[in-house]
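Q: Give me the 3D complex with NDP.
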Amino acid sequence: MRWSHGYLLLCLLCASLLAKHLIPLLPYASFSWPPLHIYLALLSYIVSLAILGAFLPGKQQQGTLLADGTRLKYKCNGLVVTGVVITTLAISAYYGYIDATWVADNHAHLFIATNVFAFVLSAYLFVKGRLCTPPNWLKQRSMLHDFVMGCELNPFILGVDVKFFSYRPSMCGWLIVNLSFLVKQYDTLRFITGRMMLYQITTAWYIWDYFVHETKMVSTWDIIAEHFGLMLVWGDYVFIVFGFSVQNLFLLSDTRPLSYVSVALIVGSFCVGFAIFRGANSQKHQFKTNPKALIWGKTPITVGGRLLASGFWGMARHMNYSGDLLLALSFCLPCGSRSSVAYFYFIYLLLLTVHREKRDDERCSLKYKSIWDDYCRQVPYRMLPFIY
Ligand code: NDP
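A: Here is the predicted complex, encoded as structure tokens.
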């Protein structure tokens, strides 16, 4: 099964509809189409990000070698773009030009509008991709496959690399949703709960870290291997923004104090998760750009000179996924045990990473052949030493 995001999400949505912990999600129960201004706000946000991305300065990063022997160049200015957007919104809210709780208040409508946008964009990419695909290739692929999984690896619209760009509205959007709920909680309770504070700090750090290390994105699976269709479009525009932030709905009115043990658990899983996640991803990126650079102070051990078997990559073949899972857990734990739906992000990421690890294993096995087999013998664990 290759449509990982789509299928997993459908299963999880069905499961959550059956769950009895859905009270905070009640606004979603009464469906109504969003008014025009919601669509306009959404489009303005996306277009502003594209314009800022085009004009603001940023480090140029070369992408991996493509099938036609060329490499794309990526302008990595996501941090400055997000900084400008958040600062502008904050100043506008402070002076009363916009309402800081607008996103939280219109969450359900924004969710629907973003879904519409994702389907329209996917349809456009589908038509565009099919039109420029050689006819003999078209026969080998179904229309549904192309719509969901995408036709093109790196589609461009008006000079914008849409796949690389789409992480910006998603990660920046996640931050905006969080901040809007933060203000809403303060407006309602006149204070910020410890749970909300922990959720906000950990997720803001994760988003900030993503943009700081944006240059490393160019060697990730999504960029090098995944075509851009509904699966990624929906994942970026809808799922990250609304799925990853679902905890807000539970935290908004949850005033229960946190025990010291809970705080230690949340902070501990965040710190350990972050060290593994960032450490593993940085080691791989460093190895790809400078194979001789020291890993944990030692000369890196390699398999066939092409695969890293030192540091986190010598402990398990995808420690970066385990680190990310611990981080995801730390984002959900502030919600406590009241609702399983609040653990949606962690459960989703667990299924995604286990499934993706298998797909990556197949891809690497085809690409590296016997070198990959040697690596698997040398590093037998997939994601967690001695466990999996
Ligand atoms: P990886 O960054 O692990 O990339 C996998 C690729 O790395 C392989 O295809 C191979 O590509 C290369 N590689 C694998 N093993 C080695 C090795 N030992 N030495 C050198 N190169 C190796 O996977 P992803 O792109 O999936 O994930 C990147 C990060 O993004 C992860 O931390 C993940 O947790 C996170 N992520 C988060 C998601 C979320 O929703 N929060 C969703 C998906 C990912 P090559 O052909 O270049 O050698």
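A quick observation: The beta strands are 59-62, 73-76, 156-157, 160-161, 302-303, 307-308.
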